[in-house]
Amino acid sequence: MAVEVEEPKQELTSSKLPSLWHNRDFMLLWSGQMVSSLGSNMTNLAMPLLILAITNSPQTAGIAGAFSYIPYVLFSLPAGALMDRWDRKRVMIICDIVRAINIASVPIAASYGALTIWQIYFNTFVEGCAYVFFSLAETAALPQVVERQQLAAAYAQNNAGFGLMDLIGAPMAGFIYNTIGRLVPFIFDAVSYTASVISLSFIRVQFQTERAKTERHLWAEIKEGMHWLWSRPVIRALAILAAGINLRLFSAYLIVIVMAQQLHANAFQLGVLFSVAAGAGIIGSLIGGIIQRRFSFVQVIIGTRILTTLIFPLYLFASNIFLLGLITVTLYLLDPIYDVVQYSYRLALIPDHLRGRVNSSFRLIAWGARPLAAALTGVLLEHLGANITVLVFSIIGVFFMLPVFSPTVRNAPSLEQAQTT
Questions:
Q1: What's phi and psi for 12, nearest 5 deg?
Q2: N or C: which end of the chain has fewer CB within 10 A?
């Protein structure tokens, strides 16, 4: 069997490379995703608010969230393998077209008085399916758009941009939802996906290296990606840590919404809360690259995971909207620091012909927790209340933090050492 070997590239230090702001293709990719992210963030706040307004049921909102995350479990592995076969840019364009049509159906159905919770479940599921394929294609394509030495900077810029869209999108959604109409955020989201399609169409660089034609079965390729991940103890540990982060992160969003409403906050105030938290996320993303240079991989991974695990239970003492926001802001600050370091570490180590499959295996472990978190959060909030919900996820968070104390993580090599082994 022929083995694909990537052509060696002349290594340049990041200081000698052109700025990412002068990388035409990266800026097209980045700008399109920023517009799309603004629309998505508006929907992310408007959707649970709309469901709560229709049903007055946190459990129903949690189930809708679970439907959007179930595709991660169902399709991550085959999607990752297919991203190593298919044209990644074409996949991304098709996914955004599907997402635009899908989200536009919400205001259309509502305008005819035909919107039901079952359609919302369907919409969230379709959105999740398209996102799985799109995000795996984008992640696998990024090292083709920027140099390897700039992966951390590119990811930090992505995170900062997404944080800025959170900063703008949440209060915009809250204001529009309250004053203009509940359905307007969904219309904006549909338009934003169209903008992403246009920006992707103008990108010139190929999103994958040349592939030799293969007769191998899809499942054999999936197993190859899973084996690569599982045979790298540090990457495997990062996947388990990420599962705990997703359980906590995707429980916290609905917890904060419900607790804020119990504290009599309106949609605009809730949007401002998430906006300030997003601002902290921008700062975390921007300093993530600096921290990566100042501290070791091990120090950042262990430090951020311990801090977030200790901070999350403080929601039990959030007796007013200020404290609720302060806790959320702190968590939003720390998570991007961790993400920048772990993302660039694992992405730089994965060969291009395996990136789709390995990242899909990683996400199956990491993101497979999302539907469970969403559904469990809704059930616990409705039947046992916010404090018990926080306590349950605090205990779960401690369990998923344990890998940071293992020799695998504590003795993990630096990125430079890992690349030479």
A1: -120, 145
A2: N
The answer to whether the beta carbons of residues 348 and 419 sit under 8 Å apart is yes
The per-residue pLDDT for range 304-321, each reduced to its tens digit, is 999 999 999 999 999 999
Nearest to 64 by CA among 135, 100, 118, 131: 118
pLDDT at residue 85 is higher than 90: no
Give per-residue pLDDT as tens, 255-267.
999 999 899 888 8
* Total structural domains within the chain: 1
| pLDDT level of residue 15 (50, 70, 90 thresholds) | low
| % of the chain at pLDDT higher than 90 | 29
CA–CA distance, 413 with 417 (Å, rounded to integer)? 6
Name the nearest CA neighbour of 270 among 21, 46, 40: 46
DSSP state of 7: P
Task: List the CATH number of the domain containing 374.
Answer: 1.20.1250.20
> Would you say the C-alpha torsion 227, 231, 234, 237 has a positive or negative sign?
positive
Residue 309 lies in a domain: yes
Say how many C-beta atoms besides its own lie within 10 A of residue 90's C-beta.
12
Contact (Cβ atoms closer than 8 angstroms) between residue 125 and residue 64: no
Q: Record the tokens describing residue 144, joined without a space.
A: 């083709």
Which structural domain range is residue 239 located in?
A: 22-202+218-419
CA atoms within 13 A of residue 419's CA, in its CB half-sphere: 13
pLDDT for the residue 1:
37
pTM across the whole model: 0.70
Locate tokens 């209340």: which residue?
A: 385
Residue 229 lies in a domain: yes
Which one of 65-79, 176-190, 283-297 scores highest in mean pLDDT? Answer: 176-190
CB 93 within 8 A of CB 200: yes
Query: Is-contact 123 105, C-beta < 8 A?
Result: yes
Distance CA 383, CA 32 (A): 41
Task: Assess if residue 4 is contained within a domain.
Answer: no
8 in any annotated domain = no
